[in-house]
């Protein structure tokens, strides 16, 4: 597993923490910039990692965001400790959202996070049950 992994950067993501939520993805963006990664790749990774991180903040009990570097790809891994996504296919539909009113007033809840993560990826894997959600999103270099 994880054959060829060169380096993993990991960030804790707390549920309901809108102050720290977004820190992980912005740190990833800056790290990749400092490494001289292509701007187009950084743009995709920034969107994918931000949407994954904010989903952990809004929809989960907390988890972790990882940025895995390989020779030929970057993989963003999001894992949380539940409660999981009841219907993954539905959750991947544009416009579907269970975001509460309290976060909609801050502009979240368009139901575009997962569809955009998939759209900007070269490979998208998602597994979810009541114990948690695991998402792996690959962007080729
Ligand atoms: N980590 C997660 N844990 C549990 N449910 C999730 C998780 N991520 C997404 N979901 C579910 O999938 C739905 C769709 O997610 P998506 O990111 O596309 O939209 P959103 O977060 O509701 O709104 P937006 O991302 O546009 O602000 C969410 O409303 C939620 O029901
Ligand atoms: Mg979202």
How would you characterize this protein structure?
The chain has 141 residues and is an alpha+beta fold. The chain has one domain (7-140): Histidine kinase-like ATPase, C-terminal domain (Heat Shock Protein 90). 34% of the residues lie in helices and 27% in strands. It has 5 helices and 5 strands; from the N terminus they run E-H-H-E-E-H-H-H-E-E. The chain has helices at residues 23-34, 39-59, 88-91, 101-104, 113-119; strands at 7-13, 63-69, 73-80, 123-129, 132-140. The chain has a 5-stranded antiparallel beta sheet with strand order 1-2-3-5-4, with helices on one face. Strand 4 (123-129) and strand 5 form a beta hairpin. Helix 1 (23-34) runs antiparallel to helix 2 and helix 2 runs antiparallel to helix 5 (113-119). The mean pLDDT is 97. Bound molecules: adenosine-5'-triphosphate and magnesium ion. The site of adenosine-5'-triphosphate (ATP) has 23 residues, from helix 2 and helix 5.
């Amino acid at each position: 597993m994880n054959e060829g992994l060169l380096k993993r950067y990991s960030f804790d993501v707390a549920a309901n923490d809108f102050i720290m939520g977004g820190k992980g993805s912005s740190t990833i963006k800056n790290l990749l910039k400092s490494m001289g990664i292509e701007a187009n790749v950084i743009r995709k990774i920034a969107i994918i990692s931000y949407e994954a991180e904010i989903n952990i903040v809004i929809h989960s009990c907390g988890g972790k965001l990882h940025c895995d570097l390989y020779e030929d790809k970057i993989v963003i891994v999001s894992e949380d400790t539940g409660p999981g996504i009841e219907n993954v296919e539905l959750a991947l539909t544009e416009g579907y959202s269970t975001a509460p009113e309290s976060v909609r007033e801050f502009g979240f809840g368009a139901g575009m996070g997962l569809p955009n993560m998939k759209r900007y990826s070269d490979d998208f894997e998602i597994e979810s049950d009541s114990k948690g959600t695991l998402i792996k999103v690959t962007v080729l270099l």
